[in-house]
């Protein structure tokens, strides 16, 4: 006789397959070929390569590989449709709403197609991918409606080329298309080669929803097609995928003037403190690393457990892993499905078998393109598996002792996409959150995403945010026409004129005046050829010293907005006390009256001092029992190439904006008029600015640009220089994927503040 408990414990799931008949018939009805959807029409459709069902190895459809000519045709269609599409926000809202409705009506077809093509469990495509994609269109229908009133100064960018990966084919499509369309852009989107099919269903729904021809264009193909789209006549490129390809795209778009956002890889820490609710934390891990077979850019793939509970936690985790059901993704009771493609499965298997450290625990998996849930404990923070993205159901684990060690290990990564923190102690959790280098932090949760909250990372996880109000800036530009920065030739004069006078201006590094490492300087003449002085020529070593100085001034980023405001006001006061002398010096340097410029400087300092404690974040209203706190954080170390004209204001304005938000800055003074640097550092020396927060270099912008661009410890570079540094800076920035802001059209205070911040979305339980 069995007790009821025994019966429950021994019961197993019966098969609960979702039918694939409708999706397969849909493909058959369309000739079994996926291809381009351009200008509202299908074609050309060719069977260039195959799309397979990874769970069964069955052939699903032939896919057309888009040629550069076909990409160009799609871009032309998008271009032609754009002006009319941008005209009426309410019309756009109606169309986006209609897309959402169509997707709802056909949600089952979309979910089954996604599961067939990608291998993910139907439970996920049905309950997560498709509903979140639909939510994205609803949310952005609202943004289209509100654009005119809420973003009166912003205009669409134009035609967007969008390249997406295979891990969330429909959801990534929605993340890319919905905000772009809402803001009046038109798009050409390329799905990943493994997963083009749900995009085909989507395209058909667009026709039914009344999307005007040319507004949404889809071109199928592989990496070469993607590269052709990046190179095509588009105004913006948006990419989600591997860091390696992200780097290539950064280089390919360097100097082209194309706007760019990159959402790349991650190795997100999942931190469990000893006072966490361990059962919840185990359940969270199921969603963190076994959701979508771990093929998630923000997967909690690095487990950090506090030492005292590690053994107990691993035991619980292993027991839970044994109950994960892996197999036919169309079965509604399956937790873990197939890996997207045998080539990806082989990569995962190789990374795991190459590892010689720690202890590996695996459950079993069926034959074929399946990989068992895997836990590897006892790794060191430097182990390859703790550093490299595996993009599979493999959890790499290590332990820590103290909260500060947890932060240190968590931040020991070139990535910075997301992080989870588990603790029942609100003080611990909320103390850790701001210290983590990540664009998203989940407190007692994981892998939560919503259209209302920005998604995106720091460091080599890429730049830009998708979703929320913060996501809109990536799809808009200011209405004002960009003015090309003026390149000014330095005045010439006779070397030796007025010799005997020693006025060699130094560099300003770490709060001290410093002689240039190379010992070189250049003579600077006034408008009448009179010798004004010598300006130091900074080299690579001086730049390195300035970066070290910025690194040692990290405390500034933790100071209060109030304190930063006080110091910026104090700079203004000290500058004001010397305004006549400064105006005269500007006159001597440029030949133009300097009074206006000095007045502007004081005004600008007041503006950024004012903002220092007021440019705050938002609380996003996400549809669950929690809120997402969109916190504005400093970017870190910023280097600025200052404008040629305005020798003082060109330094003051970016300096004030960056330090107001808690960044450390290195200014490269005006190339033709470097001599206001000394005036500024003397003011800084008397204004209580902590050493290293502001550093000033002088020298050749074109020579310093590639060095700045490639420095691994600079997080962002801005240029207002008269020299066109875009190619050098953007190409070099691919090294550590630093943010670039080059010759921006917008330099209003708010634009500068936006660029001086990263937005971190911290998800906290609220009312739960
Ligand atoms: P991938 O980055 O190569 O592919 C993503 C997309 O970029 C695809 O649509 C592809 O066709 C396109 N693409 C490839 N080369 C291109 C180029 N030169 N120019 C423009 N577009 C190009 O990713 P892949 O090969 O599918 O996966 C490899 C690894 O990348 C994975 O194992 C994983 O580590 C990582 N990955 C990360 C993702 C994320 O969301 N962070 C998503 C997918 C992959």
Can you offer a commentary on this structure?
40% of the residues lie in helices and 19% in strands. The chain is α/β, with parallel strands linked by helices. It contains 25 helices and 33 strands. Helix 4 (89-105) runs antiparallel to helix 6, helix 6 (122-150) runs parallel beside helix 7 (169-182) and helix 23 (701-710) runs parallel beside helix 24. Strand 7, helix 7 and strand 8 form a beta-alpha-beta unit. The strands form 8 sheets. It has a 10-stranded mixed β-sheet, with helices on both faces. Strands 9-8-7-10-11-19 form a 6-stranded mixed β-sheet, sandwiched between helices. The chain has a 5-stranded parallel β-sheet with strand order 30-29-28-31-32, with helices on both faces. The chain starts with a helix and ends with a strand. The site of 1,4-dihydronicotinamide adenine dinucleotide has 26 residues, from helix 9, helix 10 and helix 13. 1,4-dihydronicotinamide adenine dinucleotide binds at residues 163-167, 190, 192-193, 222-223, 226-227, 230, 240-242, 245, 248-249, 264-265, 297, 344, 347, 389, 391.
Write the SSE topology:
Blueprint: H1 4-10, H2 21-29, E1 33-34, E2 37-38, E3 41-42, E4 49-52, E5 59-63, H3 68-87, H4 89-105, H5 107-118, H6 122-150, E6 154-156, E7 159-163, H7 169-182, E8 186-190, H8 197-209, E9 216-218, H9 223-231, E10 236-240, H10 243-253, E11 259-263, E12 268-272, H11 278-290, E13 300-306, H12 310-322, H13 342-354, E14 359-362, E15 374-377, H14 384-387, E16 394-400, H15 403-411, E17 418-422, H16 426-432, E18 440-443, E19 462-463, E20 476-478, E21 504-505, E22 507-509, E23 512-514, E24 521-525, E25 531-536, H17 540-551, H18 561-577, H19 579-590, H20 595-612, E26 618-620, E27 626-634, E28 637-641, H21 649-660, E29 664-668, H22 676-685, E30 694-697, H23 701-710, E31 716-719, H24 726-732, E32 739-742, H25 749-755, E33 757-765
Bound molecules: 1,4-dihydronicotinamide adenine dinucleotide (NAI).
The site of 1,4-dihydronicotinamide adenine dinucleotide has 26 residues, from helix 9, helix 10 and helix 13.
